[in-house]
Amino acid sequence: MTATTKAPPSAPVPAAAAAQANSGNAKAISWEIAKFIGSLIISFFLILVIWWLFLLAFPDIGPIIGKTPIDVFHYLFTEPASATNRSEILDNLWITLKDAGIGFVCGMGAAIIAAALFVMFRPVAQTFMPIAMLLRSVPLVAMTPLITLVVGRGVAVVAVMGGIVVFFPALVMIMTGLANAPKQINDVIVAYGGTRMTSMRMASLPSAVPALFAAAKVSVPGAMIGATVAEWLGTNTGLGATLQQALPAAAYNELWASVLVITVASIVLYAFVGVAEKLVLAQMGTKPT
């Protein structure tokens, strides 16, 4: 009777192993995204609680001026005129979102270009960075009359004011990301005859992607603030104009509802950028800053 020998277990099929790895990565990314969105939802409810506690801590504000989250809910959803109220606020929100998008694109684009120039040419950074920080210290409200005088009250004032709010924090964060590119990669590029632009394109920019997303997350709420200020003081449109007009008209329900809608829109935009960050960085195999 001959003994039979067992064949050694076959190695896992590479395709199956890759599918398992991809499935595990997808679950990990989904879990990270779920935690991120969950933390934002908790933060939103904390904002509502703080809002309520603030009104309780200062009863002198009174129910006529100080509206609670429930009052705003009734204004937007249960009152007889709630459909009209929602329509007006959503129409103004769309204007504010477009203005915020203009400011965000202008500010981020200028910050990326300026950061690249400052990293590639140190004398330029030493010359203009103090000027940029000096301008950053001037309140935006104080510069608004001069800005509107120079560029008018149209889209240009939205681009300038929104861009100013976005530009300065994004500039610092993007410069840090570009400057932290691996020196060994830069040395190899230079050794093969690469220029500063080649080093920036092939080494600095890819390594700065986490910093770019971090700057974008910070800049999205800033763009909403810049758009609101530009509308309040410049264009007289959108939710910024609604806030301005609601105060003298004693339309406090509309005022508080507009503030809540701006807050929710900022959180949603922040969440959108955060989810995009996690997906892109997971594909690149890097971690957020």
Automatic annotation (TrEMBL):
Pfam family, one: BPD_transp_1
UniProt keyword Transmembrane, yes or no: yes
Record-annotated membrane-spanning stretches: 36-58, 100-121, 133-151, 157-181, 202-225, 255-276
Membrane topology of the entry: Multi-pass membrane protein
InterPro entries to which the protein is assigned, alphabetical: MetI-like, MetI-like_sf
Protein's GO biological process: transmembrane transport
Keyword Coiled coil: no
UniProt subcellular location: Cell membrane
Domain ABC transmembrane type-1: 89-273
GO cellular component, one term: plasma membrane
UniProt similarity note: Belongs to the binding-protein-dependent transport system permease family.
Protein name as catalogued: ABC-type nitrate/sulfonate/bicarbonate transport system permease component
Lineage: Bacteria, Bacillati, Actinomycetota, Actinomycetes, Mycobacteriales
